[in-house]
């Protein structure tokens, strides 16, 4: 890692690779990849995980725990959780790059991006504000309840059944927002691009690879569903492994789409 700029992608290399004059990974326009690459991203993420399983599991627990604790804050808990998790994820993306280029991964990367969090927080604010607008405009009072809480579980279940149509519309409207922010964190963390460019490039990358991204999400959802059907103990153990692999796969997908290189393929 660069001692002068903690946001520079590690420049150490195992074999020669395309670089710009500063030694950073080259950011290129998002390319289209085959649908089968979604499985490749998961395999590459698992390969990174298996070399440092304990630090990666601890990373997932720290991120999840911080999100849960902040989520308990009245009214602003959801927004605070989103903001902190975006900064944590920025550090994790730096850790992924460091590991790929031969450095040891440790939980220290969880806190690395807190030194310069502003762009990462800006992305999370965009996500929070737009998602809140969608929830309030489509779901009305029920959307306000989802944001700020206040309903008991039984009443919540009844409301969900009664508003299945608006909830489906909300999910559809959320898709472009998710696309615009999916790769924003890694693009900012590793390339220090502007927030506007990060959102634009993320949306383009997802749009050009919509099918692989859908398959990626379905694979994780299916795996979690299978684990849950087996029992709570296997589900809990599976989540400890799958949770870090899920966000490592964001890095492996980014390398494939935005740098035109596959992690582990030299």
Folded structure, characterized:
The chain is mainly α. The chain is built from eleven helices and no strands. The two termini are 20 Å apart. 36% of the residues are buried. The model is unreliable at 9-23 (pLDDT under 50).
Elements, N to C (H/E): HHHHHHHHHHH
Mean of residue pLDDT values:
85
Radius of gyration: 19 Å
Major sheet: size, sense and barrel closure? none
* β-sheet strand percentage: under 5%
- Number of spatially distinct domains: 1
The number of helical segments is 11
Shape: globular
What are the SSEs and their pairings?
Blueprint: H1 37-51, H2 53-71, H3 77-100, H4 118-139, H5 141-148, H6 153-162, H7 164-182, H8 184-191, H9 195-208, H10 210-230, H11 232-258
Summarize the structure.
With 266 residues, this protein is mostly helical.
Q: What are the main properties of this structure?
A:
single chain, 266 residues, mainly alpha, 11 helices
